[in-house]
Backbone:
């Protein structure tokens, strides 16, 4: 791993560790000095030393992320070498101090006391200190302990490979997060550029939110990466200790090492079982930087503060007029209300309708005005094979207050909403196959849930029960 890591941070020109790395449009990186010399020979216009892609002096860019990774890798390699040297020093010292004679009786050590975990002579075996103890020959004890050590070594090799792969994946995810941050920042800047100076304050606010999310995400990722690197360092030190110990030909030396440090290193207990690998509990924290509807509907949310300077963003999708006879749809297709009477829940729940349109790709946002209604459901349904079935719904009623109800689940997941929303925002992300609910008055996220039904998806609403006229107000899909 050390050699592999060294090669990854090596300059292709000078073959040394990258110093002040810079990158080209083709994404190859070099030391600044090496690339400057290469360019000087070519009179300010040259080709990449690796892929021969043409570039000029203006194309050279500082790669700060790579520089930080190179610095961290250099420190890691130095620490690894120091730990390996220290481990070898300890093992060498143990080997030199080993002896084949019993210190009490000066007899050759031919036996091994399993109870005390130490080599003994034939006189020691009959001594009262070892009466009733389990005793083996050195050869048998050596074979058993070496098998345990070899098994642990194999586990360490597996851990080493897994941790190397995990660290590489984690570094990739960190780089992807930084690239995603740049793409989202550029998108936000472009959209705000279409507005007047009044919008600058809002731009700063949203960028700060994005950077806060990035900081929280990267903090978790970097803590996980640090944990992996610490585990990898420990694995390699233990790996070096076990390799050196297994190379020992003298039974007494090996078993003395085993009694002093080998047993605790291998992890043998009285009831020996499978050797546990700490790497089994390690996993990569994936890139999940996500702005929700701010990525695709930013201008609409700013429009709420500047009604006269932005185009409408919410999608204009009317509700189907066919469906449950207990539900009435206005001619515009925007409002849905329960008909006068005592509407009860049936085996399928409350009566509901969906939009005429359904979607397989893209992102869509609606706002539904709930006002002061006492009973309603708003969410997303799946429309596989032209048969619509509710998937995930945000519900409100007097029995359970606000809660999430999903297909295939009998439980109702309660939501804690401090301020009663007048409008509910529904953000359908087909790419991530998830739906998010917002208090549309303040754009406060209520909940995000994964969808379980199959594509396509539609917005669906239920105006709830009539409740003797107390819940007769309609649900209205807002158009702006």
Residues:
């Amino acid at each position: 791993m050390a050699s592999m890591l060294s090669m990854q941070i090596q300059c292709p020109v000078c073959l040394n560790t990258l110093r002040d790395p810079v990158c080209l449009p083709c994404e190859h990186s070099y030391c600044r000095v090496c690339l400057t010399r290469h360019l000087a020979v070519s009179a300010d216009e040259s080709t990449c030393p690796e892929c021969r892609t043409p570039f000029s002096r203006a194309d050279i860019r500082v790669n700060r992320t790579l520089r930080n990774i190179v610095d961290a890798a250099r420190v890691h390699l130095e620490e690894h070498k120091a730990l390996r040297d220290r481990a070898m020093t300890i093992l060498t010292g143990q080997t030199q101090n080993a002896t084949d004679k019993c210190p009490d009786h000066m007899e050759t050590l031919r036996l091994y006391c399993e109870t005390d975990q130490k080599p003994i002579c034939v006189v020691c075996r009959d001594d009262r200190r070892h009466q009733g103890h389990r005793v083996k020959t050195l050869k048998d004890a050596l074979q058993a302990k070496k098998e345990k050590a070899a098994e642990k070594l194999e586990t360490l090799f597996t851990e080493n490979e897994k941790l190397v792969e995990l660290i590489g994946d984690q570094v990739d995810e960190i780089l992807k997060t930084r690239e995603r941050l740049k793409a989202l920042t550029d998108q936000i800047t472009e959209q705000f550029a279409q507005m007047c100076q009044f919008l600058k304050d809002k731009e700063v606010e949203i960028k700060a939110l994005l950077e806060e999310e990035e900081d929280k995400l990267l903090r978790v990722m970097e803590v996980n990466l640090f944990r992996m690197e610490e585990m990898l360092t420990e694995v390699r030190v233990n790996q070096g200790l076990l390799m050196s110990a297994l190379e020992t030909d003298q039974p007494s030396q090996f078993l003395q090492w085993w009694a002093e440090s080998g047993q605790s290193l291998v992890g043998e207990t009285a009831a020996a079982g499978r050797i546990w690998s700490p790497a089994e509990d390690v996993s990569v924290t994936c890139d999940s930087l996500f702005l929700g509807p701010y990525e695709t509907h930013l201008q609409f949310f700013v429009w709420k503060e500047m009604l006269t300077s932005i185009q409408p963003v919410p999608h204009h999708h009317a509700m189907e007029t066919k469906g449950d006879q207990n539900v009435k749809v206005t001619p515009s297709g925007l409002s849905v209300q329960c008909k006068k009477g005592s509407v009860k829940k049936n085996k399928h729940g409350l009566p509901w309708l969906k939009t005429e349109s359904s979607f397989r790709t893209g992102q869509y946002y609606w706002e539904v005005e709930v006002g002061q209604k006492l009973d309603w459901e708003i969410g997303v349904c799946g429309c596989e094979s032209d048969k619509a079935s509710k998937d995930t719904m945000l519900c409100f009623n007097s029995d359970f207050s606000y809660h999430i109800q999903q297909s295939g689940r009998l439980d109702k997941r309660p939501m804690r909403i401090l301020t009663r929303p007048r409008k509910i925002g529904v953000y359908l992300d087909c790419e991530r196959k998830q739906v998010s609910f917002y208090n549309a008055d303040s754009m406060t996220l209520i909940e995000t849930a994964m969808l379980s039904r199959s594509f396509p998806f539609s917005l669906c609403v239920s105006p709830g029960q009539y409740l003797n006229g107390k819940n007769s107000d309609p649900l209205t899909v807002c158009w702006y």
